């Protein structure tokens, strides 16, 4: 029996009402503890920008190098950097922040593969999560912007959640920057030709994000956004 088969069987096993109630109660305490720990540590970090992207991107890849450059320049403009804390683009983001002597935060998640913390996170800003939804709250609550590098399902999940929260006015608007026009072009064509064409989104929703190709363009968009609203990175 494979590990997946075993997990499915365990999920389908009938449990008594007391077992369900007890397990759920303990889960609530674990969830609360993750929120409290995250709030306490991240409330002190100052203005930061989250960098998302693939855990599978290797050092030397053009997007790894670009993510490191973006992170470095963020620190030189007064921002700290938050990543998912793992390898790939996340590592590049923390590495660039560390090189720029800026705040370098890692929000790690326990996964069966790919995820492990990278060595470029500030020792007092390396958080561990069991729950994806708690981790995602931390990304949104404590970021002044999102830099979205090429990635997979996890990156798309984080991108569309941020857009949805802004679109539905559950959070205030903040800049979302997609880096790499050649990577994002196919997805954005589908968004325009299918979602927009069929009336599932509005024309204004396309203005909730910006596509760039260089680190300087990404930083310029962030700075212009906050200058427009008379805000600075040190608020």
Structure in words:
Helix content is 50%, strand content 12%. It is built from eight helices and seven strands. It has helices at residues 3-12, 17-42, 62-76, 89-99, 132-141, 153-167, 181-196, 215-228, and strands at 48-52, 80-83, 104-109, 126-129, 146-148, 176-179, 210-212. A seven-stranded parallel beta sheet has the order 4-3-2-1-5-6-7, with helices on both faces. The longest helix has 26 residues, at 17-42. It is globular and about 45 Å long. It starts with a helix and ends in a 7-residue tail after the last helix.
| Element string (H = helix, E = strand) | HHEHEHEEHEHEHEH
Structural class: alpha/beta
Oligomer classification: single chain
* Count of DSSP H/I helices: 8
Total beta-strand segments: 7
Q: Uncertain regions: pLDDT < 50 for 5+ in a row? A: none
Strand order of the largest sheet: 4-3-2-1-5-6-7
Largest sheet properties = 7 strands, parallel
Helix content bin: 40-55%
- The chain-level mean pLDDT equals 89
Strand content: 5-15%
Give the overall form: globular
Spatial extent as radius of gyration: 19 Å
Distance between the termini: 55 Å
Descriptive labels:
7-stranded parallel beta sheet, globular, 235 residues
Q: Which helices and strands appear, and what pairs or packs with what?
A:
Layout: H1 3-12, H2 17-42, E1 48-52, H3 62-76, E2 80-83, H4 89-99, E3 104-109, E4 126-129, H5 132-141, E5 146-148, H6 153-167, E6 176-179, H7 181-196, E7 210-212, H8 215-228
Parallel strand pairs: 1-2, 1-5, 2-3, 3-4, 5-6, 6-7
Summary of the model, kept short:
The protein has 235 residues and is an alpha/beta fold. The protein is built from eight helices and seven strands.
């Amino acid at each position: 029996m494979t590990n997946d088969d075993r997990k499915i069987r365990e999920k389908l096993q009938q449990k008594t009402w007391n077992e369900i109630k007890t397990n759920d109660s303990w889960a609530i305490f674990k969830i609360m503890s993750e929120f409290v720990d995250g709030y306490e540590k991240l409330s002190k970090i100052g203005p930061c920008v989250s960098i998302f992207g693939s855990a599978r991107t290797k050092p030397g890849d053009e997007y790894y190098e670009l993510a490191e450059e973006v992170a470095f320049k963020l620190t030189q403009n007064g921002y700290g950097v938050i990543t998912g804390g793992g390898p790939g683009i996340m590592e590049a983001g923390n590495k660039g922040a560390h090189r720029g002597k800026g705040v370098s935060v890692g929000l790690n998640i326990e996964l069966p593969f790919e995820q492990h913390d990278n060595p470029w996170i500030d020792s007092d800003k390396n958080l561990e999560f069991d729950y994806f939804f708690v981790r995602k709250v931390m990304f949104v609550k404590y970021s002044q912007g999102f830099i979205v590098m090429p990635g997979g399902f996890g990156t798309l999940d984080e991108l569309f959640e941020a857009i949805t929260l802004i679109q539905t006015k559950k959070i205030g608007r903040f800049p979302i920057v997609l880096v790499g026009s050649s990577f994002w072009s196919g997805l954005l064509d589908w968004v325009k030709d299918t979602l927009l064409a069929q009336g599932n989104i509005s024309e204004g929703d396309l203005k909730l994000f910006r596509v760039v190709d260089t680190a300087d363009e990404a930083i310029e968009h962030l700075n212009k956004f906050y200058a427009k609203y008379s805000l600075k990175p040190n608020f």
